[in-house]
Design the sequence.
């Protein structure tokens, strides 16, 4: 039996509000926790004050032709 090797791609990209909304809509993941508006507001306020770490990771998985947002929905919602 052939064992698959995981493949990782790392990319640094500036995410616009439009991109963030597209990613949230296009990459649902049913195991993702519910969005907490209070946390989104805290992140948005930190971004406005330039206190947000700009190189924070957002994790997307590619599986069987689909993309899933695994981590980053609160950050994307705050943009």
Sequence:
């Amino acid at each position: 039996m052939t064992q698959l090797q995981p493949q990782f791609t790392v990319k640094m990209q500036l995410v616009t509000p439009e991109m963030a909304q597209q990613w949230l809509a296009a990459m649902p993941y049913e195991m993702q926790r519910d969005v907490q508006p209070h946390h989104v507001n805290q992140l948005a306020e930190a971004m406005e004050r330039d206190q947000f770490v700009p190189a924070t990771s957002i994790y997307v998985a590619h599986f069987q032709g689909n993309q899933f947002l695994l981590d980053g929905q609160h950050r994307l919602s705050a943009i």
